[in-house]
Amino acid sequence: xxxxxxxxxxxxxxxxxxxxxxxxxxxxxxxxxxxxxxxxxxxxxxxxxxxxxxxxxxxxxxxxxxxxxxxxxxxxxxxxxxxxxxxxxxxxxxxxxxxxxxxxxxxxxxxxxxxxxxxxxxxxxxxxxxxxxxxxxxxxxxxxxxxxxxxxxxxxxxxxxxxxxxxxxxxxxxxxxxxxxxxxxxxxxxxxxxxxxxxxxxxxxxxxxxxxxxxxxxxxxxxxxxxxxxxxxxxxxxxxxxxxxxxxxxxxxxxxxxxxxxxxxxxxxxxxxxxxxxxxxxxxxxxxxxxxxxxxxxxxxxxxxxxxxxxxxxxxxxxxxxxxxxxxxxxxxxxxxxxxxxxxxxxxxxxxxxxxxxxxxxxxxxxxxxxxxxxxxxxxxxxxxxxxxxxxxxxxxxxxxxxxxxxx
Length: 408
Hints:
The protein has 408 residues and is α/β, with parallel strands linked by helices. The protein has helices at 14-25, 51-54, 59-62, 67-72, 131-141, 155-166, 187-199, 247-251, 296-310, 374-386, 392-396, and strands at residues 6-10, 31-35, 75-78, 83-87, 92-95, 100-102, 105-108, 112-114, 125-126, 147-151, 170-174, 203-205, 210-216, 219-225, 230-232, 235-238, 242-244, 260-262, 273-275, 280-282, 322-327, 330-336, 343-348, 355-361, 364-371.
């Protein structure tokens, strides 16, 4: 009698929980073990900086599935442990508890960790990567009109800035680049988001580096910038990016380069090991190595591909990478990767509260960024995925529907 296969998943976050679910959905009959160190079942992380911080959803609402789901579907959850070592020769994962798990297939879904700022330990300095961080942040924001300094004008920092401002905090965003979202969004989008924050009373300081932090006893008191500006604060959120949790993969000899290298089907350099989510970098068939894509969409697509591969089901179609961010009444949706030398076409909404920015190269749409225009986002997502040619004249003409630019 054939022994049932065993799939071990390292990481009980959004991507790890999704691949376990997808395996069962596609009829996988082997053992599934999900390893996580947060003491809770898989949950959604994007709302931590928005709805959860505002108090409009609770921890139960964030759960991907009820705890009973895992028991009912024979998914073994080790939620107070973590993987310490992968013995690829023996196909064994060794846990911090000392327990060893044999596997037939291994999925690494360890995500990324916040990049740390070298500081003294002090109360009031927080990061935001998980529920524990979010609980600390929520407690500090509960003070009456707290002064909040945010180091980093990326998505996490700006989403928290919008939420904190909504809650009545006095907010200052400190960004070392010449504009917020400099690495991830176009100038037009950056300008629109900047305007929204300033209209809400958020102060945005660009081209600024931190000289030092000052403390009041054991609590953060102010951030002093290189030009002498002092930003007094009761709370300092540090959002200066993230680094992949790929140590265990590198130590086991898997191919890594600022993340675990995988192919289009999320397979690593070891045929028995897959990796998904924020910890990965995809190598295209032509050898090009993409940057890490920290997005829920990428993680879910990879999870579906792993499940299809292990159950010998048809693979889902490749999707263009997509991202989103909610700030105030603005929904920013982005799809594709912007080539540095693309032609940029901006269309403003007729009602004046939205816009779409298209990036065209070699006659095709390569990326799009939209604010409050889900229709343009969906049109762009389909056009990029299918490689449609674009009529640039039609796209520039704001009196014509966007869809007409892709009908040829």
